[in-house]
Each structure stands twice: as structure tokens, then as C-alpha cells.
């Protein structure tokens, strides 16, 4: 290695020690307890077994997702979102948060 190469390496080492530290990431929010009903799905349990058109007669505030057979569904966790899963027969099969 030449003297110039060694000098460049030494300068790089000095400047690397002077680099600013990356900002600390904020802590991640705690996951809800299993079974926590953060989307109020329990209050809609009477809809299970009814035709999917029953959702048109219910006032649903907040994030709502209707999942029909064959729909592509993202795996993102949103505890405050209520999901209505529709069965092959066109009836509400399951209601859950997420």
C-alpha cells in the first residue's frame, strides 16, 4: 500500500468516528391483548348468518373491510378495523378485528 493510500484510509477512519449518530427510533406501540375487541365487533355478532346486504342497513363508523370469497386480503394488522367475512353462500360468516 502506498503512503497516499494509507493516509486516505487513516482519514476515512477519523471521519467515520465523527459521523452523526442516526436518530433513535420511537418505541413501537404495544400489541393489543389477544381477543381484545378494539373494533367493537362484539356488538355486531347478531349479523352472523345474515345475508351480506344486511351491512347496508347498519351504521358502521370507522375502518370497515368486507372480505368476499376469493378477495385478495392484506395481512396488515389494524386492531381498530372491523372485518366482515362473507361466505360462499353470500352470508356473513365471521366478524373480527384486524
What is the structure about, briefly put?
By secondary structure, the protein is an alpha+beta fold.
Textual characterization of the structure:
There is one protein chain. With 98 residues, the protein is of the alpha+beta class. It has a domain at 35-98: Trypsin Inhibitor V, subunit A (Trypsin Inhibitor V, Chain A). It is built from one helix and three strands. The protein has one helix at 3-18; strands spanning 64-67, 82-86, 92-97. It has a three-stranded mixed sheet, with no helix packed on it. The termini are far apart. The mean pLDDT is 81.
Comma- or semicolon-separated keywords:
Prot_inh_I78; elongated; Peptidase inhibitor I78; alpha+beta; 3 strands
List the helices and strands and how they pair.
Elements: H1 3-18, E1 64-67, E2 82-86, E3 92-97
Parallel strand pairs: 1-2
Antiparallel strand pairs: 2-3
The named CATH superfamily of the domain at 35-98:
Trypsin Inhibitor V, subunit A
Oligomer: single chain
Rg, rounded, reads 27 Å
Residue fraction in strands: 15-25%
Chain-averaged pLDDT: 81
Pfam families: Inhibitor_I78
Protein name: Peptidase inhibitor I78
InterPro entries: Prot_inh_I78
Amino acid at each position: 500500500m502506498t503512503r497516499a493510500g494509507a493516509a486516505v484510509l487513516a482519514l476515512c477512519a477519523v471521519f467515520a468516528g465523527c459521523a452523526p449518530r442516526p436518530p433513535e427510533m420511537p418505541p413501537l406501540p404495544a400489541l393489543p391483548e389477544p381477543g381484545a375487541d378494539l373494533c367493537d365487533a362484539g356488538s355486531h355478532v347478531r349479523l352472523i348468518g345474515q345475508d351480506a346486504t344486511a351491512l347496508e342497513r347498519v351504521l358502521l363508523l370507522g375502518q370497515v373491510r368486507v372480505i368476499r370469497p376469493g378477495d385478495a386480503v392484506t395481512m396488515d394488522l389494524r386492531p381498530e378495523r372491523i372485518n366482515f367475512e362473507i361466505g360462499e353462500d353470500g352470508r356473513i360468516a365471521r366478524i373480527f378485528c384486524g
